[in-house]
Write a structure and sequence with these properties.
This protein is α+β, with helices and mostly antiparallel strands. It has three domains: 51 residues, no CATH class; 136 residues, CBS-domain (Roll), CATH 3.10.580.10; 83 residues, Uridine Diphospho-n-acetylenolpyruvylglucosamine Reductase, domain 3 (2-Layer Sandwich), CATH 3.30.465.10. It has 13 helices and 14 strands. The strands form four sheets. It has a five-stranded antiparallel β-sheet, covered by helices on one side. A four-stranded mixed β-sheet has the order 1-9-8-7. Helix 6 crosses helix 7 and helix 9 crosses helix 10. The protein starts with a helix and ends with a helix. The N terminus and C terminus are likely disordered.
Length: 344
């Protein structure tokens, strides 16, 4: 008699043998590293590790994640969201790129480093749509200094002032940049930068023009949050009230933020349908990039004076509330005088 003959059956049907229960996940002792705790939490579990981790992080100090600090929780959440982020989400937009013409001198380059406080600046030929590389401040420093080998000298280096007059195109100090599309995943670009040891990428649009620039610091901030250094300035409010009728705003101020400060009478209406910022609104009203000092109307109860601008964009705008003049023959309530007398 075979083993199958001796196996009891129920209702005349063959049932598959029951699977043995999965062993319980080992408990994660306190004091271990984050990675050790994660492996212990999800060991031998037949479900998605990503799903489990997302649920655990969304719960407030659950039994399994109560040992995570706030910074650990934030970093883990950012890592899980990294697959959804694209280069266009973290890049510096074209209008904010600080770049320099390759025909500029090294002295111009040093002055630009002092002004913007960056360690890397893109270099272009003719216009910003033709970026050829970037220059690191360390390479510029090597060109304008040299080591003093005379032990009788008290200083270890001296300034080579003649190099400041040389054009960047003659110095051959520009480094290579990557060219990437705006929809490239952030994680893929970070991996490419690590492999090729390149710390700057130029984001190009469908026509081959420059859409933005992204550095490895921008990519890291997508994981660990904002990284501020000694050159970063603390951002103040983008719009401030001077008095009840005058407001000063950055062109980057969102229309919703502007309305919140000025009041509900500030209504962009159909003019604001396709723009998000006050600078975009003024651009739409003018039909072009207005010049510094120019006053733009076209919005009920308000006019705009351009305080700062360049050939490509607006930077600072004065918003002025206009007092409406009463029509001839109108009383304070806005009704014509003849209509008021008839009513009486």
């Amino acid at each position: 008699m075979s083993d199958s003959d001796t196996t009891p059956k129920s209702d005349g049907q063959d049932w598959p043998p029951a699977e043995p229960p999965s062993p319980p996940a080992p408990a994660a002792p306190r004091g271990q590293s984050l990675w050790t705790r994660l492996r212990a939490m999800f060991a031998l579990r037949p479900v998605s590790l990503r799903g489990d981790l997302e649920v655990a992080l969304e719960s407030e100090a659950s039994g399994e994640t109560q040992d995570f600090s706030e910074s650990e929780r934030t970093i883990l959440q950012n890592v899980l969201q990294l697959g959804e982020k694209r280069v266009e989400d973290v890049m510096v937009p074209r209008a904010d790129i600080e770049a320099i013409d390759v025909e500029s001198t090294l002295g111009d380059m040093v002055a630009r480093f002092r002004k913007v406080g960056h360690s890397r600046i893109p270099v272009y030929a003719d216009n910003i749509d033709n970026i050829t590389g970037f220059i690191h401040v360390k390479d510029a420093l090597r060109r304008i200094t040299e080591v003093v080998t005379d032990p009788a000298k008290d200083i270890p280096v001296r300034l080579v002032s003649i190099a400041l007059k040389l054009k960047l195109s003659k110095l051959d100090i520009a480094r290579t940049v990557l060219f990437v599309p705006p929809l490239m995943p952030v994680g893929d670009l970070l991996q490419q930068m690590q492999l090729k040891r390149v710390h700057m990428a130029i984001v190009i649009d469908e026509y081959g023009g420059t859409d933005g620039v992204v550095t490895i610091e921008d990519l890291l901030e997508a994981v660990v949050g904002e990284i501020e250094d000694e050159h970063d300035e603390e951002d103040g409010p983008l719009i401030r009230k001077i008095n009840s009728n005058i407001f000063i705003a950055s062109a980057r101020a969102e229309l919703g933020e502007v309305e919140g400060v000025i009041g509900p009478d500030f209504d962009p209406g159909e003019h604001g349908a396709d723009v998000d910022t006050i600078g975009g609104l003024v651009f739409v009203l003018a039909g072009r990039v207005p010049e510094k000092g120019e006053t733009i109307g076209g919005l009920k109860n308000f006019e705009f004076e351009v305080l700062q601008a360049d050939s490509r964009q607006l930077r600072r705008i004065k918003i002025k509330r206009i007092k409406q003049r009463k029509a001839p023959g109108a009383k304070a309530d806005g009704k014509p005088e003849a209509e008021t007398k008839a009513a009486e």
